[in-house]
């Protein structure tokens, strides 16, 4: 940014596309079904992800029923339980969270927040959604094939994933792998779009360092996903070969029921390396957009510029970079070379530094801010607290010597649900309460919203705090029932009952939320324009909700960063990014203190 | 415009505000599809590199100790492994030649597009299609030869990798043929060579890339 020369003014066809040159839907079908408008695609992504997410929610209820009240439910056989675990994990991590943050929020917010009319490749964007839908349908189909879905656990570790004792060995695992491969192909199309749109289609004046942190989060997460998903793709294809063509990439010599299988010589650890080389960045693919969104929620609802904007950007980048060199901390007990444990423990603990910087900056943004305890703010604060809790147990598990005894216990389950289940989903909720007026022009019902927040927030702690304790007691994860085990006291059963009841209530609160969404789309109170008095471009559109093409005949021009809240001497307590500077504003620095 | 300078900007300071107000909003002065191709090539490189790593690792995997992973990853040796080297069918050399010719023809196509020579461009594009499809058919024939000789994927991990690597490489080529088909149809519908020049050049770059990947795979197969 050293030279103040405008670059390539002649070459601006993307950013300055006049409205009539845009793709225009001609019928209901091209407007709402095969739409190339990023906003519609975003809603399609979000709806699909939510629907399949509800399936995963029901599965978690069933699992909790079994754990809380073992032997009470005849319809849950051990094989069913393993299938619930597998499908719950895979759906939540990939088909819900990844798709919702990048496909949903990414599609809706990127063009609007950077001041573009649409994604750079709208057709490919549409294709991306339809391939995602096919992947989801393929996944859902496993419930109806002979043998049902795979029960291999969401990590699909061979050799057990494709042995005959594992449920869903015939069809379930094959369809699951095919569905994942499709998902990756679809995501790559969408991901290329998000990255290129951010790089090439920003409005005039919107430099990279003027972008809202939401866009930074989605941008970096997309790059992570583009680089990490190939690893999952490789492991999926190789496992598919082992399953369908009887190769031995991952399969060692195995004797099953006294019979020697034709496999031999493969390396199951190789699968784990490939899987986690994807799997750990995946955590940040979900977390980094959440970091970005929560930064914007906090700044807007505390009426204050984000503390340490540059450091927030750097932290996102450093976290993204580090997330590629920590994968084997998921494999301390796999039998890999012990020296790797030392390296990966160190790199894992280093990630705490940029993460802690982010947490401090959120708290310092709140410090002496004009905090409005609106629903988005409540969810944002809930996120910070939950993320700290989940992050701290991550420090426990990052150390080899602590991880070894805690591995495969409920402690791990509690940890990752806190840090990448509850924390990001709180941000998703906060973001929905924040942007719902923009998307629909109506408010969500606030009373139901508060009910939803408090039950979800308190309930999540009722579920997962005791679960850490169960882990310390040695209660193993993935067990259908505990049976007679000497080291597990009877009190564990009571705690399990309590957790199950809490889980049922929290799940029910999500149904209330879904009801609120559907009700408010049609009958919610009408929202005025820019109801939160936010600075970012998506609220400055001519109409709310924004029409196709996002902005009016003229694309917005950006004159400031995204965080001009409570600027001293300004008329309002916010200055939109596209508001030209007042004559006397020119010389003085804008809102933030110099750093 | 270095990344560090960009990331070091203080967007709230008055002097930076003046600089930022002049920004066009674009990061790179090349067409969006050129950046798309480059990013995709990075993604594909990650994919093929991981296949390489998997190949080397599986080749060295001891039949007894899975913990040997990564310990001898740099040595392409076959100690204590069940790995049997692949017998490369001679047909692979022909197939390689098809891809090399493809790349050369693309260079000619670039030239023709620059000189706005429609007839030459049409010929070049048709030739690319014929050569690419010949390559794919050649690869299928190799599969069939190996299978007929009793070496299907399950015969040995080396054969498993051969089918997988050639399969994934072939799928990438088929993906490229989709774009080739779109361009060729447009060309025959009367689009001017000038309007297609950028896309034809990018298509050519993709083919060059797939040639490099194929040569890397072929070398790996020959050397191990």
UniProtKB/TrEMBL annotation, chain A:
Keywords, comma-separated and alphabetical: Electron transport, Heme, Iron, Membrane, Metal-binding, Respiratory chain, Transmembrane, Transmembrane helix, Transport
InterPro entries assigned: Cyt_c_oxase-like_su1_dom, Cyt_c_oxase-like_su1_sf, Cyt_C_Oxase_1, Cyt_c_Oxase_su1_BS
Lipid biosynthesis in keyword set: no
Source organism superkingdom: Bacteria
Transmembrane segments: 40-62, 82-110, 130-151, 171-192, 213-241, 283-299, 311-333, 339-363, 375-402, 414-436, 448-467, 498-523
Pfam families from the UniProt entry: COX1
Similarity remark: Belongs to the heme-copper respiratory oxidase family.
Protein name: Cytochrome c oxidase subunit 1
The species this protein was found in: Sneathiella chinensis
UniProt gene name: coxN
TrEMBL record, chain B:
Limits of the Heme-copper oxidase subunit III family profile domain: 12-224
Name of the protein: Cytochrome-c oxidase
Topology of the protein relative to the lipid bilayer: Multi-pass membrane protein
Organism: Sneathiella chinensis
InterPro entries per the UniProt record, alphabetical: Cyt_c/ubiquinol_Oxase_su3, Cyt_c_oxidase-like_su3, Cyt_c_oxidase_su3-like_sf, Cyt_c_oxidase_su3_a-hlx
Source taxonomy: Bacteria, Pseudomonadati, Pseudomonadota, Alphaproteobacteria, Sneathiellales
Family (UniProt): Belongs to the cytochrome c oxidase subunit 3 family.
Record-annotated membrane-spanning stretches: 35-55, 90-109, 121-141, 161-185, 206-223
Classification via Pfam families: COX3 (PF00510)
GN (gene name): coxO
Keywords for the protein's UniProt record, in alphabetical order: Membrane, Transmembrane, Transmembrane helix
Gene3D superfamilies: Cytochrome c oxidase, subunit III, four-helix bundle (1.20.120.80)
Localization annotation: Cell membrane; Membrane
């Amino acid at each position: 940014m050293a030279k103040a020369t405008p670059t390539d003014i002649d070459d601006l066809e993307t950013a300055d596309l006049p409205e009539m040159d845009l793709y225009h839907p001609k019928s209901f079908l091209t407007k709402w079904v095969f739409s190339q408008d990023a906003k519609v695609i975003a809603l399609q992504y979000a709806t699909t992800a939510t629907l399949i997410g509800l399936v995963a929610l029901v599965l978690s209820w069933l699992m909790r029923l079994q754990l809380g009240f073992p032997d009470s439910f005849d319809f849950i056989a051990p094989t069913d339980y393993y299938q619930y675990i597998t499908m719950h994990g895979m759906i939540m991590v990939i088909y819900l969270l990844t798709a919702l943050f990048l496909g949903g929020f990414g599609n809706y917010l990127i063009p609007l927040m950077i001041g573009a009319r649409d994604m750079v490749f709208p057709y490919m964007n549409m294709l991306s959604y339809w391939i995602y839908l096919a992947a989801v349908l393929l996944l859902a189909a496993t419930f109806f094939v002979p043998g049902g879905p795979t029960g291999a656990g969401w990590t699909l570790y061979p050799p057990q994933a494709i042995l005959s004792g594992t449920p869903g060995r015939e069809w379930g695992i094959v369809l699951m792998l095919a569905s994942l491969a499709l998902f990756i192909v679809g995501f790559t199309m969408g991901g290329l779009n998000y990255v290129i749109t951010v790089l090439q289609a920003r409005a005039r004046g919107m430099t990279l360092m003027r972008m809202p942190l939401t866009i930074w989060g989605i941008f970096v997460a997309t790059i992570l996903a583009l680089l990490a998903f190939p690893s999952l793709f490789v492991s999926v294809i190789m496992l598919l070969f082992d399953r369908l063509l009887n190769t031995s990439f991952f399969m060692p010599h195995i004797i099953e029921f006294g019979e020697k299988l034709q496999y031999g010589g493969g390396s199951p650890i190789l699968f784990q390396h490939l899987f986690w080389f994807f799997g750990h960045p995946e955590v940040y693919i979900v977390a980094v957009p959440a970091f970005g969104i929560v930064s914007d929620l906090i700044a807007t609802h505390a009426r204050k510029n984000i503390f340490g904007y540059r450091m927030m950007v750097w932290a996102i980048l450093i976290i993204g970079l580090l997330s590629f060199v920590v994968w084997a901390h998921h494999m301390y007990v796999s039998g890999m070379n012990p020296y790797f444990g030392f390296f990966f423990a160190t790199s894992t603990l280093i990630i705490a530094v940029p993460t802690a910087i982010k947490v401090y900056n959120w708290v310092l943004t709140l410090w002496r801010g004009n905090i409005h305890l609106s629903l988005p703010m409540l969810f944002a604060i809930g996120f910070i607290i939950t993320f700290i809790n989940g992050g701290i147990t991550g420090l426990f598990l990052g150390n080899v010597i602590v991880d070894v005894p805690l591995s495969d216990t409920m402690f791990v389950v509690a940890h990752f649900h806190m840090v990448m289940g509850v924390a990001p989903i709180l941000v998703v909720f906060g973001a929905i309460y924040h942007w719902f007026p923009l998307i629909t022009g109506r408010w969500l019902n606030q009373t139901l919203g508060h009910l939803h927040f408090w039950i979800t927030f308190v309930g999540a702690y009722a579920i997962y705090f005791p679960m850490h304790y169960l882990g310390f007691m040695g209660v193993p994860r993935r067990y259908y029932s505990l049976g007679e085990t000497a080291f597990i006291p009877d009190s564990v059963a009571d705690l399990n009952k309590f957790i199950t009841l809490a889980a049922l209530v929290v799940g029910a609160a999500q149904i209330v939320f879904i009801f609120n969404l559907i009700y408010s789309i049609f009958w919610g109170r009408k929202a005025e324009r820019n109801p939160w008095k936010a600075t970012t471009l998506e609220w400055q559109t001519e109409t709310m909700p924004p029409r196709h093409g996002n902005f009016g005949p003229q694309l917005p021009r950006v004159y400031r960063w995204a965080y001009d809240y409570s600027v001293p001497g300004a008329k309002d307590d916010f200055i939109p990014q596209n508001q030209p500077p007042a004559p006397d504003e020119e010389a003085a620095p804008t809102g933030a203190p110099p750093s | 415009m270095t990344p560090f300078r960009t990331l070091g900007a203080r967007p709230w300071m008055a002097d930076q505000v003046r600089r930022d107000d002049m920004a066009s909003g674009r990061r790179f002065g090349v067409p969006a599809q050129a950046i798309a191709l480059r990013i995709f090539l990075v993604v594909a490189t990650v994919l093929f590199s991981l296949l390489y790593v998997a190949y080397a690792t599986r080749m060295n995997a001891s039949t007894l100790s899975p913990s040997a992973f990564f310990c001898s990853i740099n040595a392409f040796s076959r100690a204590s492994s069940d790995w049997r080297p692949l017998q490369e069918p001679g047909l692979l050399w022909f197939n390689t030649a098809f891809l090399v010719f493809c790349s050369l023809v693309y260079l000619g196509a670039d030239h023709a597009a620059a000189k706005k020579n429609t007839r030459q461009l049409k010929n070049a594009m048709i030739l690319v299609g014929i050569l690419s499809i010949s390559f794919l058919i050649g690869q299928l024939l190799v599969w069939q030869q190996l299978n007929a000789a009793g070496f299907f994927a399950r015969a040995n991990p080396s054969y498993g990798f051969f089918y997988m690597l050639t399969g994934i490489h072939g799928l990438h080529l088929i993906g490229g043929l989709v774009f080739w088909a779109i361009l060729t149809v447009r060309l025959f519908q009367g689009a001017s060579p000038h309007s297609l020049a950028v896309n034809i050049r990018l298509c050519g770059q993709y083919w060059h890339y797939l040639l490099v990947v194929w040569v890397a795979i072929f070398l790996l197969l020959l050397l191990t």
